[in-house]
Structure formats: C-alpha cells, structure tokens
Amino acid sequence: MHLFRRFFGIRLSQPTVAGLWYGFLWMMIGALILSLLLQGDMLEEFEMTLYTYLVHVAAVLFGGIVSGKRAKQKGWYQGALTGALYVLLLLLISFLAMDTSLGFQEWALILPGVVIGAIGGMIGVNLGRK
User: Fold this and answer.
1) What is the pLDDT of residues 18-56, one digit of tens each?
2) In whole angstroms, what is the distance from residue 96 CA to residue 72 CA?
3) Which of 63, 74, 89, 104 is most buried, by CB atoms within 10 Å?
4) What is the dihedral of CA 86, 92, 93, 94, to 10 degrees?
C-alpha cells in the first residue's frame, strides 16, 4: 500500500474534499453495477429509480464516513457539508446535462443528503477513535 502511495501519492487532507471524492467513487461503482444488471436483463428500467436512489444514499453515507473519519471531530458538520455539496454537484451536473429547470422537488433532495451525510460523519468520527 505504501508503494502505491509513493507513486500515486495524492493525499486528500481536507475532509470534505476526501468525502466528496469517495462519495463519487461509490456512485460510479454503483452506476456500473446497475448498468451491468440492466444490460444483463436482471433489472427492468422501471425499477431503476429506487436502485438509483439507494446508490446515492450509499455514496453520501460512505462520503460522510470518510469525511468524519478524516476530520476526527465535528463529524456531523463535515458529513452534512459533504452530503450537501454532493447533492448540489449532482443537481448542477443534471441541470447542465439535461437542460431542465430545477424545481422544488429537486432542491428538496438537499435535506436528505445533509441528514444522511451527517449520520455518516458521526459514524466516521467514532470509527476513527481507537
């Protein structure tokens, strides 16, 4: 592991940035798994909404855990900030990619992102203490 860090040694020391990085990494892994399930006819398109939300919940939770673990204190704050920024970046990307207007339903997704991120941050702070 130290060999990889030496050659590819980018260490994200800021907790929120590290949490966003890991959150988007989990989102990409989840999207790949969902697309493979969809391609293999194990999943129908009308079921995708639920599973997409579950992938985003897992991504925000794991991003909050990483953020809280790196912060070592105020994990709820770091996790909530990570969750809010994650949802805002997703809204920005979807707004620019699909050229649609952002309504109340889209902006209301920030609140669950903040809550799930804060829970992840609290878990992360407690995982870091040993």
Assistant:
1) 999 999 999 999 999 999 988 888 878 888 888 999 999
2) 35
3) 63
4) 110
